[in-house]
Write a structure and sequence with these properties.
Radius of gyration: 14 Å
Structural class: alpha/beta
Number of helices: 5
Strand content: 15-25%
Oligomer: single chain
Strand order of the largest sheet: 2-1-3-4-5
Largest sheet: 5 strands, mixed
Helix content: 40-55%
Distance between the termini: 37 Å
């Protein structure tokens, strides 16, 4: 599966989560080394009343269960929004080698915009970052969501 196709799946997951629970529309997909989807995630903070319910965390937990290991060192995480500090830390802790994201998060992003934890030279685990995949579509989904909230 290529990054754009995986991002389209993540976008659908983001829409599902937002429609079903009113959560901020962020979706995540984890691919194995063969490009097959092993886990999906969407924001579930409102649904679960859990501050840790970010799409990336949900997907990482699901992938670990699916694979049967905490090390996801042959996986790729595809997410519609640049990960925050918590999620960047989880990506590194899970040893995910590649991150693909759509929209930049100029307020809380930790993978190149506000901070760049994921590529910090002092980090024990290095992550390849591919940004801007379907960026406009990912950003528009968030813009529409927050416009409806106001």
């Amino acid at each position: 599966m290529n990054h754009e196709r995986a991002m389209r799946v993540a976008l659908e997951r983001a829409k599902f989560g937002s429609t079903s629970s009113g959560d901020v529309p962020v979706g995540a997909v984890i691919l194995n080394k063969d490009g097959e989807i092993v886990a999906l995630g969407n924001n579930q903070r409102e649904l679960l009343k859990d501050p840790l319910g970010h799409a990336e965390i949900v997907a990482i937990k699901a992938a670990s269960r699916s694979i049967g290991a905490w090390r996801l060192d042959e996986c790729t995480l595809v997410v519609t929004l640049e990960p925050c500090v918590m999620c960047a830390g989880a990506i590194m802790a899970a040893r995910i080698p590649r991150l693909v994201f759509g929209a930049w998060d100029e307020k809380a992003g930790a993978c190149g915009s506000v901070w760049d934890l994921i590529r910090d030279p002092r980090a024990l685990h290095k992550v390849e970052v591919i940004s801007g995949v379907l960026e406009q579509e990912c950003a528009e989904l968030l813009t529409q969501f927050f416009a409806q909230k106001r």
